[in-house]
Amino acid sequence: MDKLVNCLYRRPDAITRLICFPWAGGGSLFNAKWGRLFDDSVEVYSLRLPGRESRSREPFPQSFDQLLDEITDVLLPLLYEKRFAFFGHSFGSFSSFATAVRLKEKHGLEPIHLFVSGASAPHSPLRYSSQKRSELSDEEFLKWMASTQGTPSELLQNKEAMQIFLPPLKADLKLVENFVYEKPPTPVLSCGLTCFDGTEDVPHDLTAWKDLTSGDFNIHMLPGGHFYLKESTNENSLVQYISRYIEASEIDYF
């Protein structure tokens, strides 16, 4: 489990586990640090995907199914132990949703809440563009990254750093660009679903996420661009929102 899961703040008596799915090319550390921001009732797990951090020598997943196989195989015993919620940003929105659907369809398990961020619903036409970003040249790709305003310019100009950073980012983008999902005839989930997004990010089709669950649905906008969540004020707001929803579900649970 330790290969996939980064948990910096162990809370064996926690009522709920919050499992965080990284953005494209992202590691586990950002969300793993959230463990210090929640109270003792929540234990934060942050996923460490192949091809980065301590798993840098492992090959990247070649499909969403391959990625989901590992995530569900490793997490499944833990998910039977206690309640859990999912959070994912951008690429992590799709991987967390796909994991939730697989768990429900194959194992009868469902998160108490799904928190998605910075992404259109998987079935929205707004997701698709004529140019796949994973196929851009490195120069064009770096220009696009600069436009998202989430990566420091000094890092973008560091060729050695980019040689490490670009491969997992492009590999994840290729997965999500090939992830085709059609609108289901009926909602595939019954848990609550909350969307977060930055007010200055490119427009995302957030309302379409409501098609995917019969549970409560909410949207929260926070100031900033695609990586709005890196701002400490927004990070604290996110944690407060998530805590509130988890606490409300705990009241219903008991």
What's the quick description here?
The chain contains 7 helices and 7 strands; from the N terminus they run E-E-H-E-H-E-H-E-H-H-H-E-E-H. With 254 residues, it is of the alpha/beta class.
Give a written overview of the molecule:
By secondary structure, the chain is an alpha/beta fold. It has one domain: Rossmann fold (3-Layer(aba) Sandwich). Helix content is 37%, strand content 15%. Strand 4, helix 3 and strand 5 (113-117) form a beta-alpha-beta unit. The model has no long low-confidence stretch (mean pLDDT 91).
Secondary-structure class: alpha/beta
Radius of gyration: 17 Å
Instruction: Average the pLDDT over all residues and give the rounded result.
Output: 91
> Could you give a short account of the major beta sheet?
7 strands, mixed
Give the termini separation: 29 Å
What is the CATH topology classification name? Rossmann fold
Sequence stretches where pLDDT stays below 50 over 5 or more residues: none
Order of helices and strands: EEHEHEHEHHHEEH
EC number: 3.1.2.14
Family: Belongs to the thioesterase family.
InterPro entries: AB_hydrolase_fold, TEII, Thioesterase
Domain Thioesterase: 17-242
